[in-house]
Write a structure and sequence with these properties.
This protein has 480 residues and is of the alpha+beta class. The chain has two domains: 11-182 and 394-477, Aminopeptidase (3-Layer(aba) Sandwich); 185-392, Alpha-Beta Plaits (2-Layer Sandwich), CATH 3.30.70. It contains twelve helices and 24 strands. Strands 9, 10, 12, 14, 15, 16, 17, 18 and 19 form a nine-stranded antiparallel β-sheet that branches. A six-stranded mixed β-sheet has the order 1-2-6-3-7-22, sandwiched between helices. Strand 4 (99-102) and strand 5 (105-108) form a beta hairpin. It starts with 10 loop residues before the first helix and ends with a helix. The model has no long low-confidence stretch (mean pLDDT 95).
Length: 480
């Protein structure tokens, strides 16, 4: 382990972040980090349970005099979103994250940082390593596969949990304490397609340079979705010449706003198509609202094609790309924030089908039901199949609950700063866990993080240290 944090206080918490950053841990590949946590617990003689999903629960007895107090559950997820800049060579299955410090910010070298949710894992390890001098009995739950639909939390056996209170360490704003989150679901629209043998001079249009972001927490920031923008450009192209799609690839993760998209097509009139594309960059830039998307670029390349989709299949794909995207409805009462949203997350052309993946969010189950009906109708209209997976519940807590006040007091005691209670338009495992454990009271907290689910992801180091100190203070005063 390196000593990049040697001159910063609270070295243990940061060192643990550095340690887990060296372990490859993209979603579905949490075995190695689970091995690390199990070995960590064994070395300290702590009770540990691990399931087949690589969820790990570590229990720590209360400090002297606090044995009769209610148990507190700390929880964070071990997986991370694996995103990188196109020019960066990085194998998320083999390579650890290369950390960089720029002033007060901790970043990665061209990839996601994994502070979501590595900060929570690191803080819990530091606490389990004796970081809190006074605390009630603790249950520390490290869950897997959160970023792909909260799958680890769904599979865990909660009969192992006895806690009355829960602190989820998966927030991204120091001055808030979260008391509610969205439910959500993933869905796919699968269009059967048939390629025809036809040769000609095709065109590949590549779109990139967008900022992307978290499809829940950033969905209201008006950042462009590369797949939706490509759909708009292709729709505009039809006014100049008919064409047939050959291939389309855009986006990757359901919980990340797509930053790039590439489409290859065979135009009937190549001259007209190229004339349109000469002005396509200006058209694309006319859709920019957020300054973060100013890096938008288009690249046009000629390519020889030997097959293409039919005109009707091309039209069916474009119709799906016209689906309403982004914030679909805002809350009508405080806190004012998105109530319903959709992210058209990815488009992939295969030999016999095109798969378009979507991620939808709302705290209200009935609004998610409305989205299901809307997508079912769209799929039926384009002769496609809709599949749904990974639906999970939301969570609504009390903004003035004693647990909320305990955290607010702890942060105030440590930093002199207050924290307001709020809801977020993103999914948290607290939704599943509070629905699985009767009477469990929960909050979610964390340090200041930026540009989650993108290669620009950053964590404020001083905020990390303050929140860790506040967590130690919270454990000292909770139940008192």
């Amino acid at each position: 382990m390196s000593l990049m944090f040697e001159n910063i206080k609270n070295i243990p918490a940061l060192r643990y972040f550095e340690a887990i950053s060296a372990i490859p841990r993209p979603s579905y590949h949490e075995k190695a980090v689970a091995d690390y946590i199990v070995a960590f617990a064994a070395e300290r003689g702590l009770d540990c349970y691990r399931d087949e999903a690589h969820n790990v629960l570590v229990k720590m007895p209360a400090t002297k005099g606090r044995e009769d107090e209610p148990t507190v559950l700390l929880q964070a997820h071990t997986d991370m979103v694996a995103e990188k800049h196109p020019h960066v060579e990085h194998d998320f299955l083999r390579d650890g994250i290369e950390l960089c410090i720029e002033g007060n910010r901790l970043l990665a070298n061209g990839t996601t940082l994994g502070a979501d949710d590595g900060f929570g894992v690191a803080m819990m390890l530091a606490i389990l390593d004796g970081g809190a001098a006074s605390h009630p009995a603790l249950e520390c739950l490290f869950t897997a596969a959160e970023e792909v639909g909260l799958l680890g939390a769904e599979r865990f056996d909660y009969s192992y949990i006895t806690a009355k209170y829960m602190v989820n360490l998966d927030s991204a704003e120091e001055d808030t304490v979260i008391v509610g989150c969205c439910g959500g679901m993933r869905s796919k629209i699968i269009l059967p397609i048939t390629f025809g043998n036809i040769e000609g001079e095709g065109i590949t249009l590549s779109l990139g340079g967008l900022s992307g972001g978290h499809s829940g927490e950033d969905i209201h920031r008006n950042r462009l979705n590369a797949n939706i923008l490509m759909g708009k450009l292709l729709a505009a192209l039809r006014e100049h010449t008919p064409y047939r799609l050959v291939e389309m690839t855009g986006g990757d993760k359901g919980n990340a706003i797509p930053r790039d998209c590439t489409a290859t097509f065979l135009p009937d009139d190549g001259t007209a198509a190229r004339a349109f594309l000469e002005g396509a960059a200006s058209l694309a830039r006319s859709f920019i609202v957020a300054k973060e998307d100013e890096g938008l670029f288009l690249k046009v390349e000629g390519t020889r094609v030997t097959h293409a989709l039919s005109y009707p299949d091309t039209d069916r794909i474009l119709r799906v790309l016209e689906i309403p995207n982004g914030v679909l409805q805002m809350r009508s009462e405080a806190p004012i924030m998105p109530e319903v949203s959709r992210n058209l997350a990815s488009v992939r052309t295969h030999a016999d089908r095109v798969v378009i993946s979507l991620c939808s969010r709302s705290p209200r189950a009935d609004r998610l039901d409305d989205i299901c009906r809307e997508e079912d109708a769209l799929a039926k209209s384009v002769l496609a199949i809709r599949e749904e997976a990974n639906r999970y519940p939301g969570w609504v807590g009390d903004m003035n609950a004693p647990l909320v006040q305990a955290w607010q007091h702890a942060l105030l005691n440590v930093t002199g700063k207050s924290a307001s209670s709020t809801f977020i338009h993103a999914g948290l495992e607290t939704g599943i866990i509070t629905n699985s454990i009767a009477g469990l009271e929960a909050i979610a907290v964390g340090p200041n993080l930026h540009d989650l689910h993108t290669p620009f992801e950053a964590m404020e180091i001083d905020s990390f240290l303050r929140v860790y100190d506040a967590l130690v203070e919270f454990l000292r005063i909770v139940n008192r």
